[in-house]
Amino acid sequence: MAPVLIVGCGYIGRRVAALLQARGAAVTGLVRSDATAQGLRDQAVRVLRVDLDDAEAGAHWARGFADIFYFAPPPPQGETDTRMAAFLQALDAESPPRRIVYISTSAVYGDCQGRWITEAEPVNPATARGRRRLDAEDRLRAWAAEHGVQWIILRVPGIYGPGKLPLARLRAATPVLREADAPYTNRIHADDLAAICVAARDSVQANTLYNVSDGHPSNMTDYFFRLADAAGLPRPPEVARTEAGQVLTPGMLSFLQDSRRMDNRKLLAELGIELQYPDLDAGLKACFD
Ligand SMILES: NC(=O)c1ccc[n+]([C@@H]2O[C@H](COP(=O)([O-])OP(=O)(O)OC[C@H]3O[C@@H](n4cnc5c(N)ncnc54)[C@H](OP(=O)(O)O)[C@@H]3O)[C@@H](O)[C@H]2O)c1
Fold first, then answer.
1. Is the pLDDT of residue 1 over 80?
2. Which domains can be identified in the chain, with CATH numbers?
3. Measured in angstroms, how far is the CA atom of residue 31 from the centroid of ligand 1?
4. Burial class (CB in 10 A: 0-12, 13-18, 19+), 69
5. Which of these, 278, 200, 181, 173, lies nearest to 20 by C-alpha position?
6. Closest ligand 1 atom to the C-alpha of 190?
7. Which of 72, 129, 182, 285 could form a disulfide with 177, with the two C-beta atoms 3.0–4.6 Å apart?
8. Which is nearest to 4 in space by CA: 143, 202, 267?
9. Closest-lying ligand 1 atom to the alpha carbon of residue 83
10. What Rg do the C-alpha atoms of the chain give, in angstroms?
11. pLDDT-derived band of residue 193, with 50, 70 and 90 as boundaries?
C-alpha cells in the first residue's frame, strides 16, 4: 500500500494508523511533542517532528506521500488556520499527493436552532473557533483544486471514547445547563470516526464533504447525565441559562451557543459505513467494559 502521512497523529490519528498498518501500509505520523512521538514509535509508526506553528518555510517535508490525513487543530487564536497554510506550503506542487482527508468540525455550520441539517446547509460559523475551521476547509479546497488533488472533508461533532471522556469534570461536580435550556449536540465514537477516515480515503467519491455523527443527537446535559450513570458517578448539578455565564467556562459556553442535529445519511450511504456504536448507550458501554 502506498505511503500514508497523518498530520496531527494524536488520539484519532493513532487509531487510523493502526487500521492502515493492519492492511500493510507504511504510516508516518507528524507531531510536535516528545511524548506523542514516543507513543507513535511504540506503535511502529514512523515519526516526522514538525511544529506547524514554526515550520521551515520552503521545505517540502510533506512530499512523497500518496494519501494524507490532516488531523491537526487550528491554532487557538485568530480567524485563520495558519497551521493548514504551513502544511499546504510543505506539499510539493510538482508531485502532489493523490488525496487529502481533513477532519473539520460541525462548528462551521454555526447555530441552526436545533434543525436537522444535511451537507447542503449553508456554513455560518458563529465563533472564531468555527471560522478558523472554515478557513482551513477553504484553503484546502482551493489548493487541491489548483493542483488536481482529491479531497474529502469530514465535519465532525463531539468525539468520545476510552480515555476521552469528561470524567474529571463530573468528579469536580461542575454544573451543566438545565436540560430544558440545553442545545442539541451530536457525537461520534472514536473507533467509528477512525473507520470513517479510512473509508474516506478508500472511497470512489472525491471532492466532497460529509456530516459525521452517530445519527442520535441529544443535548449536552443528557450526555453528562448518561456518562455519570455509566461511570457510577453522581449526576452534575444543573443551572439555568441566566446563571451559566457565572459558572461555566468560556470554552463550554461557546459549545452551548450552537444547536443543530446532524443528518448522517450521506455518510452512511456513500462511504458504506456501518457504525459500531450507533448511539451513546452502545458507545459508553464499550468505554466501561
Ligand atoms: N474533541 C472533539 O470532540 C473534536 C470534535 C471535532 C473535531 N475535533 C478535531 O479532530 C481532530 C483530531 O482530534 P484528536 O482527538 O485526534 O486530537 P489530538 O489527540 O489532540 O491530536 C492532534 C494532534 O495534532 C498535533 N498538533 C497540534 N498542534 C500542532 C502543531 N502546531 N504542529 C504539529 N502538530 C500539532 C498534536 O501533536 P502533539 O501531541 O505532539 O502536540 C496532536 O498529536 C483535531 O483537529 C480536533 O480538533 C475534535
1. no
2. 4-164+187-215+263-277 (3.40.50.720)
3. 9
4. buried
5. 200
6. 15
7. 182
8. 202
9. 31
10. 19
11. very high
| Nearest one of 158, 227, 167, 222 to 193, comparing CA atoms | 158
- The Cα diameter of the chain in Å comes to 58
pLDDT above 90 as % of the chain: 90
pLDDT (tens digit per residue) in 209-230: 999 999 999 999 999 999 999 9
Strands 4-7, 67-70: pairing is parallel
Q: For residue 10, report the distance from its CA to the centre of ligand 1, in Å.
A: 6
Q: Which of 124, 100, 97 is nearest to 8 (CA)?
A: 100
The pTM assigned to this predicted structure is: 0.97
CB distance 29 to 3 below 8 Å: no
Question: How far apart, in Å, are the Cα atoms of 240 and each of 176, 177, 224, 255, 258?
Answer: 9, 6, 16, 16, 17
- Three-state DSSP class for residue 157: coil
Q: Which cell numbers hold the place of 218?
A: 441529544
User: pLDDT (tens digit, 9 = 90+) per residue, 114-136?
Assistant: 999 999 999 999 899 999 999 99
Closest CA to ligand 1's atom 23:
8
Q: Indicate whether residue 255 lines ligand 1 (CB < 6 A).
A: no
**Distance between Cα 195 and ligand 1 center (Å):** 17
